[in-house]
Specification:
The structure holds 2 protein chains of 2 kinds.
Chain A (H helix, E strand, L loop, with lengths): L1 H32 L17 H8 L1 H33 L5 H13 L2 H12 L5 H8 L14 H26 L3 H9 L4 H12 L1 H17 L2 H6 L11 H10 L4 H29 L4
Chain B lengths: L2 H37 L19 H8 L2 H32 L5 H13 L6 H10 L6 H5 L6 H12 L3 H9 L4 H12 L1 H17 L2 H6 L8 H10 L6 H32 L4
Helix pairs in contact in B: 1-13, 2-13, 3-7, 3-10, 3-12, 4-7, 8-9, 10-13, 12-13
The chains are: A mainly alpha, B mainly alpha.
């Protein structure tokens, strides 16, 4: 067994060095930096305790970004999961044009978020975009969807749902195919309708998949913000500013890395909670072995 | 209900289901269809839908010469190839250790690997940028890929697959005198092909599409991948025509789209077979 030990060390070393070097160590460093000031030129960072966090609490833009992100997550996560399930249920059936349907649902997933942003930007353009053109047919006035603080967050949110649903559909499709057909036959012998079957058999059986998708959806709702760069740059008036976009601006446009670190810690805390929750709760139900 | 009523109801049901599916699919493809429409028509028809509008390909060469897209393509392809190769090699070795070897601290190390599924390097922008400037790698293609070379997801997937491979095959290869690398090459890698394919497709599309990290760590034409190049191109204030921007958008996503359409079946199937539940 001693030989195993040496082999394991050699096999794991390259992967673990890179893994820790770009994930675990920077995560810890970020937490440490969040207690120090931003270094400026010859003035090195000095310990400031919770000063960066106090600053965040007073920073309206940060608070606004958090709220935006909460709304963004609270809508994109359930919406993309439900639509993904509906898509999977459709595609799981044998019907005319199945390959077109699957392609239509899945294609957005393959596109870069930047390309997606470009496509939707034009879609939303006041009076010329397709949405306003269709509204025009019904005699409705032009709407500047992305120019209004009331609607802009929803415009970027729709894009995220559009992009994610097809991806999650794949996982549901995989789960649906594992449901034995005998169950369906048994249920129909018992006289159970489709809705009863869905609620009593399908939903419980695909529960592990739903949890897996949910975790991914939460991560995506924090990470997937590229379209903001193209579509709104967080505006107007910060109405579509999301957390990671704000961190990017503070860190790489204003080079104020200390508050950026503190904000990153907020994201890290959310993701760690998620990881712990998954570890203790999900792993009981979904066996990885 | 007579038997006839039941078949009628079933048919109606079927029709409604199909209708619903098609409506959703058309709604879903609409934004993309719109982009395709504008890219293949002269800019005068950007917002003017008529079936008689003349088709044109001129938007593509127009976009191609307005920005160094050839270079961006090359950069992205180098990035994607480099990242995938490193991921597969490193993860294969690590996954074998996790699947088959006994050593102290295995569970802790594997937990650290799984943690990367949650805390991905692209959230730790500030520190990873500092690391890159410390290594003198800022504005290189290597810097875009390096944080992703060790993929927790790939290690996890391969470990799951390797564990389903009978230990007897491993022993047999050893008895025939194969070393560790030989066993991996002759037994594990061939049997895990679907997993490699599945991860390969996921990785290529992820890194082809990645934007924020490359945006931060590159600042020249020689290193910029397509996504960053496209954003620079479409955000210039000089009033590039929409049809040209859409042509560029389709062009940059094109290879991936074509690849997906060709591999659609494999993609979906290998994902399912990879046993992600």
């Amino acid at each position: 067994m001693k030989r195993d030990w040496i082999y394991a060390l050699l096999l794991l070393l390259p992967a673990m060095v890179l893994l820790m070097g770009f994930t675990h160590i920077p995560a810890i460093e970020t937490v440490i930096s969040s207690f120090f000031s931003t270094p400026h030129g010859r003035r090195p960072a000095h310990f400031v305790g919770l000063e960066n966090y106090r600053y965040l609490l007073e920073d309206d833009v940060f608070i606004r970004s958090c709220w935006n992100n909460l709304i963004y997550s609270a809508i994109t996560i359930p919406a993309s999961i439900i639509i993904a399930l509906v898509m999977a249920l459709f595609v799981h059936n044998r019907m005319a044009g199945l390959s077109f349907l699957r392609m239509a649902f899945f294609t957005p997933t393959v596109l870069p978020m930047i390309a997606v942003g470009n496509i939707w930007l034009f879609f939303y353009t006041p009076s010329f975009g397709l949405i306003d053109q269709i509204r025009g047919l019904f005699g409705l006035p032009a709407q500047n969807w992305m120019g209004s603080t009331d609607t802009v967050l929803y415009t970027v949110l729709v894009v995220a749902v559009w992009k994610n649903a097809g991806f999650f559909m794949i996982f549901y499709l995989a789960a649906l195919q594992t449901i034995p057909t005998q169950l369906r036959e048994a249920a129909s012998l018992e006289g159970a309708g489709r809705w009863t079957f869905f609620r009593r058999v399908t939903v419980p059986l695909i529960m592990p998949t739903t949890l897996f998708i949910m975790v991914n959806a939460i991560i995506n709702s924090v990470r997937l913000i590229d379209h903001i760069f193209i579509m709104t740059q967080g505006g107007p008036n910060n109405a579509s500013r999301l957390l990671l976009y704000h961190i990017y601006e503070v860190a790489f446009e204003y080079w104020d890395t200390a508050p950026a670190s503190a904000m990153t810690v907020v994201i890290l805390a959310v993701l760690s909670l998620l990881a712990i929750g998954q570890f203790f709760w999900l792993d009981r139900k979904v066996h990885y072995r | 209900m007579t038997a006839q009523d039941i078949t009628l109801a079933a048919r109606l049901d079927r029709a409604l289901l199909t209708l619903g599916a098609w409506l959703l699919a058309i709604l879903w493809i609409l934004p993309l269809a719109y982009a395709v429409w504008t890219a293949f028509h002269p800019s005068a028809y950007e917002t003017n839908f008529s079936l008689t509008a003349p088709l044109t390909l001129e938007n593509f060469p127009k976009a191609w010469v307005q920005a160094p897209f050839a270079r961006y393509f090359l950069n992205t392809m180098m990035l994607v190839a480099m990242t995938l190769t490193a991921q597969l090699v490193l993860s294969t070795l690590a996954a074998y250790a996790f699947a088959r070897l006994k050593f102290p601290g295995k569970n802790i190390l594997f937990t650290l690997v799984l943690l990367q599924l949650m805390v991905t390097p692209d959230i730790l922008l500030v520190k990873n940028y500092e690391t890159m400037s410390m290594l003198g790698l800022v504005d290189t293609i290597l810097a875009i890929g390096l944080p992703y070379f060790a993929s927790g997801f790939c290690i996890f997937l391969l470990r799951q697959t390797f564990m389903t491979i009978p230990k007897e095959l491993d022993d047999a290869a050893r008895i025939e005198g194969e070393g560790l690398i030989g066993t991996l090459w002759r037994v594990y890698i061939p049997l895990a092909k679907p997993t490699y394919l599945a991860f390969g497709l996921v990785s290529v599309s992820a890194h082809w599409n990645d934007f924020l990290w490359p945006l931060i760590v590159t600042n020249s034409v020689e290193t910029r991948p397509l996504t960053v190049g496209l954003s620079v191109f479409s955000m210039t204030e000089s009033g590039v025509e929409w049809s040209v921007i859409n042509a560029a958008t389709l062009m940059t996503s094109g290879p991936l789209l074509v690849g997906f359409l060709l591999f659609q079946r494999q993609f979906v199937q290998s994902f399912m077979r990879a046993g992600i539940k």
